[in-house]
Each structure stands twice: as structure tokens, then as C-alpha cells.
Specification:
Length: 431
Amino acid sequence: MADTNKTATLTIGNSSYDLPILSPTEGPDVIDVRKLYGQADVFTYDPGFTSTASCDSAITFIDGEEGVLLHRGYPIDQLASKSHYLEVCYLLLYGELPTAAQLEDFESRVTNHTMVHEQMHRFFTGFRRDAHPMAIMTGVVGAMSAFYHDSLDIQDPWHREVASIRLIAKMPTIAAMAFKYSVGQPFVYPRNDLDYASNFLRMCFAVPAEEYEVNPILARAMDRIFTLHADHEQNASTSTVRLASSSGANPFACIAAGIACLWGPAHGGANQAALESLKEIGTPDRIPEFIARAKDKDDPFRLMGFGHRVYKNFDPRATVMKQSADEVLELLGVENNPLLQVAKQVEKTALEDPYFIERKLFPNVDFYSGIILEAMGFPTSMFTPIFAVSRTVGWISQWKEMIEDPQMKIGRPRQLYTGVSAREYVDVENR
Ligand code: CMC
């Protein structure tokens, strides 16, 4: 972040205030209002952060108008086609692509942390069978702070490193266990001879009664889903992790907070909601009825998997995901699956509809990831946990960046108070 020597002048009544303008390496300039309250006794007001940069960060850049997503400068389409998830994890965490030796070392460290403490199995069995896997994940990841005491000191770089590796390594195991528990099957232990995505598929779909062969095309599609969701700068869950961590809370508690935020249907829960909408639509002849409902301001129904706060032309992740969806559907021979036919028709209808065109609403990454996960055999309740597995590295990278920033302060937004002004307490008998 560079000072531009430019200032913005704010005039309030007869007083003027010069506000420094800071320049990022990419993206719009930023007006620095940090000293404004002290100087002018006013706050800025921006619910939903539509015009506010909450921090500086060197990890991910998005240009929503141009549909650009860069991780440490590398475009997402190149990472999705040439790299793989654990290499992208290394890039996000440490800032550069690894050498072959660094990658081997990183992969081996992650691989050797994939098992969870055996006693944690009991947490799972404490939940009702019909508990949503996100509820289980929020609880179990938070509970990791009760098990891994040797990686809780956020001021110690080694503790931060160990906590990071543990979270990336154990999250697939925890998500798969949540799934297995919900379907009444035994937990499947991780296998360290498999890559990250293959291991996850095996932990989800293998059963002790028979051998499970990982299909390399499905493993590649799974890896791509992980890669495309790895980070997305200051979205709601990442900002939640940052805010929770700014108080000094331990990393497991903070990631649990991120998981809770991700669950919402406007964020990570959209992939589940999108598929459920498609199921509700059911057959192509009902699509016009649902499109009309999505456009009706008196109806809360929204076409889930459409639209994005930042991307206003296309979601570059969705472009890659759509390609991956086509490959997976063809491989599995399910191109004619009725649900997927509805999905394709919804996409076509919405993209031609003036309501969606004018508002720049197009399918986002979650529309297509839901289709792939459905075809792979995951129930919709597992879609958001898979997003959480993928996003863990983004949360951790942003958390580490924040803790390592000497300017770190506790996050403490201000407000525009609209309540009652000071008044005298009235004794109960006089009310
Ligand atoms: N269906 C119907 N209308 C929509 C939709 C939709 N999915 N999304 C936005 N609109 C309309 C909205 O009603 C508004 O119309 P008007 O200007 O007439 O009032 C206009 O488009 C702008 O919407 P907004 O709510 O002001 O936009 P936002 O930037 O606050 O919301 C969003 C972005 C993603 C929350 C929203 O588009 C949405 O709810 N989409 C469905 C949920 C979804 O797919 N979320 C996943 C996002 S990608 C994964 C992730 O990063 O988590």
C-alpha cells in the first residue's frame, strides 16, 4: 500500500479535512479515514461494507467488473488448470509457488496430520444422526482447541504453523466423518498414500465391506472444487475469522466462527440452496413459474447460485467449474439426469431474461459446484462442508497475515445509533 500524495477533502460546514489517499498494487484507490473521527468527530457509515476496505492484504485480488481473481498474482484459471489444491495452499500461506522440494515437504507435513485425536470420535456420536454436517463441523473444529494445546499460542510462529497445517489436514477428515455419521456408516480413516482429494473421496465413499477405487477424473474434479474455493479475499466468513482473531482468540475457535458464517445461504450455503431450488422446480415446465417468483419483489424466493456482490460480469471460478461439470457429467454418463436438465434450462432461461441481464446476475461458482457434487453422489447437506474444507486455507492465510501485521488492532466497528436517548429509570410500580 503506497501513499499517493493525493488527498480527498471532506467539508463539513465551515471545516475541511484532508484525507490521505492510498494506492493499492491493483484495484481502486482507498481514502484513509482512520483519523477522521479524532479530527472531525464523525464516523463513516457503510453497512454491508459496500464501499469499505476493512484491511490491507497481499493474498488475493478480485476485479469484479473484469471477472479477475488472482492468488498472490496468479490467475485462478491458470491455477485451476496447471496447479493443484495443496500447491495453491502453499502459495496462499507462504506467498510464492513452492519448489519441488518445498512442495514435497509441505505435502508430507499435511499428510502426516490427517488423523484426528481418537477421542474426538466421541464428539460425533454425541450429535443426533440428522444433525447438519455444518453443525457438527462448527462444534468439532471449535473443540479442536480442547485437544491441540501445543498450537494455541498465536504469538508463537511455530504454534501458528502447526495449527495451520493441522486445520488444512484434518478438515477433510472431520467433514467426511460428519458425512459418515449422518448415513450410519463407520468412519473411514485417512490413507496417507493418497492425494488430498482422493483421500477425501475415499473417506466419504469407502465402506469396510469392499475395496474402493478412486476414479482419477473424479479426484481431479474434487481437487478443482477445492482449488476454486480456496480463498476469496474479504468475504463474510473470512472477515468473520479476522474479526474473531483480532481479539486474540485461538485459531480453532476462529475457524469455527468462519464455518458458522459460511453456513448461511447467501454465502457458502448457496450451493446446497441452489440444488434444493432445482429439486423444488423439479421439471423444466415449472421453470418460468420460479423465474417469475425470483423476480417478484413481494416473494422472498431468490434464484440461488445466481448473482455475486463483487462479480458483476462473470465469476471466473464459475467458468472453470462449468467446464469441470461437463467433464464429470459425461464421465458418469448422467448428462440426461432430469435434475441436471433442469439446471441447464434454468441457466439458459435466466441468462436470456432482462431482469437477470440488467442486474448482472449470472450463475456463480456454487451453481456449478452443486451440480458436480450431486453427480458425484454427495447429499446436498455435504455441499457447504466441502466449501468449508476448501476455504480453510484462505481463512488460515488471512488469519496468519493479520496476526503477523504489526499494525493489528482489535476489530471494533462503530455504529449509527437510532435508539432512545438517555432517560431516567422508572420504578416498576410507576410503569
Ligand atoms: N435471484 C433474484 N434476484 C436477485 C438475486 C437472485 N439470486 N440476487 C440478486 N438479485 C436482485 C436483488 O433483488 C436486487 O434487485 P433490485 O435492484 O431490483 O432490488 C439486485 O439483484 C441486487 O441484489 P443485492 O441483494 O443488492 O446484491 P448483493 O450484492 O447484496 O447480493 C448475493 C449478492 C450473492 C448475496 C445475491 O446475489 C444472492 O442472494 N444470490 C443468491 C445466493 C448465492 O448464490 N450466493 C453465493 C455467492 S457465491 C459464493 C460465495 O462467495 O459465498
